[in-house]
Amino acid sequence: xxVKVITVGEKILGANEEKARDNKSRLDEHGILTIxxxxxxxxxxxxxxxxxxxxxRKKLRIAVIEGDVASSVDAEKVNELGIPVVQINTGGAxxxxxxxxxxxxxxxxxxEVDTLLIENVGNLICPNAFVLGEDKRVMISSLPEGDDKPLxxxxxxADTDTVLLNKTDLQxxxxxNTDAFEKAVTxxxxxxxxxxxxxKTGEGMSAWLAWLESAVKDKxxx
Amino acid sequence: xxVKVITVGEKILGANEEKARDNKSRLDEHGILTIxxxxxxxxxxxxxxxxxxxxxRKKLRIAVIEGDVASSVDAEKVNELGIPVVQINTGGAxxxxxxxxxxxxxxxxxxEVDTLLIENVGNLICPNAFVLGEDKRVMISSLPEGDDKPLxxxxxxADTDTVLLNKTDLQxxxxxNTDAFEKAVTxxxxxxxxxxxxxKTGEGMSAWLAWLESAVKDKxxx
Lengths: 222, 222
Fold this sequence. Notes:
Two copies of one chain form a homodimer.
Chain A: E1 4-7, H1 16-29, E2 33-39, H2 45-56, E3 62-68, H3 73-80, E4 85-89, H4 98-105, E5 115-119, E6 136-142, H5 149-152, H6 154-159, E7 162-166, H7 178-188, E8 193-196, H8 205-221
Parallel strand pairs in A: 2-5, 2-6, 3-4, 3-5, 6-7, 7-8
Helix pairs in contact in A: 1-4
């Protein structure tokens, strides 16, 4: 018995791209390094953002856009740290788009920001097709999701600049093959930078923070 | 400083529903209990299906439809067990729809099936809006995703018949509040049945298997 495979095509709309270019020009004017952070639900986007703020707030002026289908629990956590933040509730939409981000930019003090961290909706598929005006894409993939995720969701892994392999503290309790994961990701994306981290324990975070600081400096030079 | 919230509307297309009714009639004719299994990427859909097959294959005739953006790794695993399976590759689409399932039904031996398990694309948002012709919806939410998922992805939790709270074996290593999770889910969906399980160790699986067997019997009676 062989497995039957049906392939279904899909058209992806693209009027979003022009608006993303507008956002990018606006952010470039202020020299703001903008990061689009994408992952599955619960992979650790908010924890990464909170930890990055705590570690770098004395060195960098950070602002945040939080994207969620519903609720503002993540933005409240950022707000508690005294960091400028806007929550976008997509009301059912499964990704942020450049129009939503343009509105959010109106409510941020762009003159006083070095880097803007945008937390996309938790989803490994749809956010990939919608550029927002970002300089860099950062994906988080967490160990409990399994090492086969690049095979099943290849587009997002192929398009990102960096992958944070999060929740390394759970390695002893999982059947997770880091080598297989890294091989699959670099097969799709030879230039990707992979950082194994635990946002919970702090393990590996220094390499990510150094990468971010360096990218902010590069942006300022332009 | 207060948090700014922007709410964005979205129209969801619905021509899918008629096709789903066709699928349902076709499956009803054969008395097949059809389950639409939904979750985040890596929450344990395939592991649940494989474990269910191993436990119930002597009692029930099971068939499977596997939905993925790409690859057929999941269907290969089911095929190895000698169970009829069709892989749908959505080619970028973030959910199954009733048209894809209708095609897959053409390739399954419907006369020899008691229950059809459909593994949807890993996504906590989009699959919810697309009925496939199922009798029951089963969601898997796994502990490493965090106990706040019902707040952020309320629609899917509100629409499901059953939630399997998977990966309970990881509880000792996580800050996860099961009571808060259950309270949030029942707040959205008072009639939901929640089964804490570990598809890995088998803990709690007997309750899920009994629920499934009972639902198959109820369907045959109709």
